[in-house]
Amino acid sequence: MNNKNIQDIFSGRFIVLDGPDGCGKSTHAKLLIQWLKEQGVSTIGFRDPGDTEIGEKIRQILLSPEHDAMDTRTELLLYMAARAQLWAEKIAPALEANQCIVLDRWLSSTCAYQGCAGGFGMDKVIKIATDCLERVWPDLTIILNVDLQTASQRLNRQLDRMEQKGDSYHQKVREGFLQLAKQQENFLTVDAKGDIETVHNKILQLISEASFIPLKGSKFPRVK
């Protein structure tokens, strides 16, 4: 694809990078934004939850180890509230301006964490999201799949409340992401165990295949 085709394809698109803690999604979201900008695509990135005044306050509550008594349902509703605010305040205006959005986490995280690992149920999470969000699913979700050992080695800092939930919980999180990727349309799963450059190139290879990404105006096809 040349730059003109890339601009046609990605302008006004909504892309999410997601996966378990330690998968590298924040790093690869930044690298993807940089690559898209280099191709001439007007691109902006956000993190979920966060990037609004309200969302950042909710994020602090959610991730603070002081709040270890928080119930799964409370987590779910707080994440959804921050998400609704991010959409209204930042994402929707950017899409209306025909910018490409690259988001660090979205509904897929709540499905994996609270829905699967937390036992609330992914179908119930999606139903709540359908009632709360103007748009439930992005054009494309890229799941960075990584094993627990590799993920834990990358988290070489003080862990937040969600990261402290233990191996059993986080194994269920990983399983939730993989299950969701099989069930939902427009998901890609990338092996994220390798070094940053290798994983970044895998992502670019997948999203740059013309047979996978159609021209603007048509939907992304189902990817298994």
Key terms:
224 residues, alpha/beta, Rossmann fold, 5-stranded parallel β-sheet, 5 strands, disordered C terminus
Could you provide a short overview of the structure?
52% of the residues lie in helices and 12% in strands.
Query: How far is the N terminus from the C terminus?
Result: 23 Å
Number of domains: 1
Which regions are unreliable across 5 or more consecutive residues at pLDDT < 50? 214-224
Overall shape? globular
CATH superfamily: P-loop containing nucleotide triphosphate hydrolases
Q: Count of helical segments?
A: 9
N-to-C order of helices and strands: HEHEHHEHHEHHEH
CATH class: Alpha Beta
Strand content: 5-15%
- Count of DSSP strands: 5
Q: In the CATH hierarchy, what is the architecture at level 2?
A: 3-Layer(aba) Sandwich
Q: SS-based structural class?
A: alpha/beta
Account of the 3D structure:
- This protein is an alpha/beta fold and 224 residues long.
- The protein has a single domain, classed as Rossmann fold (3-Layer(aba) Sandwich), CATH 3.40.50.
- Helices cover 52% and strands 12% of the residues.
- The protein is built from nine helices and five strands; from the N terminus they run H-E-H-E-H-H-E-H-H-E-H-H-E-H.
- The chain has helices spanning 3-10, 25-38, 53-63, 72-96, 107-117, 122-132, 148-154, 167-183, 196-207; strands at residues 14-18, 43-47, 100-104, 140-145, 187-191.
- It has a five-stranded parallel β-sheet, with helices on both faces.
- Helix 5 packs antiparallel against helix 6 (122-132).
- The longest helix has 25 residues, at 72-96.
- It is globular and about 50 Å long.
- The two termini are 23 Å apart.
- 40% of the residues are buried.
- Mean pLDDT is 91; it is low at 214-224.
